[in-house]
Amino acid sequence: MTITEIKNHLSKLNSIAFQLPDGTLVPNHFHVTEVGKVTKHFIDCGGTLRNEVVANFQLWEADDYDHRLHPEKLIHIIELSDKLLNLGNLTIEVEYQGTTIGKYGLDFDGTNFLLTTKQTDCLAKDNCGIPSEKPKFKLSELENKTSSCCSTDSNCC
User: What is the mean pLDDT of residues 116-131?
Assistant: First the structure.
C-alpha cells in the first residue's frame, strides 16, 4: 500500500484497526509512534548495488486506554511527515512488536488495515546458481531405495 492509498482509505473510515496475519487485531489503544522514510542502500549477493526507500510506520501499544488514534489524526500525521520528509507516494512498511520487532507489508480489506507477511528473497538468482525452478521428477522413475537398503536381510537397520 502506498501513502496515497492509505490516506484515501482513512478518509472513508470512522475508526482504525490493524489486523495481524494470524487474524488478531492490534489492540485499539495503539499509537503510531513513528512515521519515517527508510533508505536501504546495499549490495546483493551478485554484487549489484541496490537502493530501496519505503515509508515506515511504527505501531506501539501503550497502557494508555483513554486515547485512540482517529483516521483524521493519522492523516494529519502522514501529511506532516510528508511535508518534512518528502515521502511522496512511497510504499508503506509497518513495524509492530511481537516476540521481536516484525516488519509487515500493508493492505486493506475494506474494514481493517492488514499487516501482511514479508519474505526474504535472493535478488541475484541469475548470478548465484539458484535454479529458477525446482527440478521435476516422476515418482515412477525414482529408484526404489527401500527395497535394497532396508530389507530384513540387509543389516542396515
Answer: 84
Alpha-carbon distance of 17 to 55, in angstroms, equals 19
pLDDT at residue 125 in the model: 83
Q: What is the pLDDT of residue 95?
A: 97
Q: Quote the pTM value.
A: 0.78
DSSP 58-87: EEEE-S--S----HHHHHHHHHHHHHHH--
Question: How many other C-beta atoms can be found within 10 angstroms of the C-beta atom of residue 40?
Answer: 9
Task: Calculate the CA 118 to chain-centre distance.
Answer: 3
- On whether the CB atoms of residues 49 and 68 are closer than 8 A, the answer is no
Q: How far apart are CA 115 and CA 95, in angstroms?
A: 9
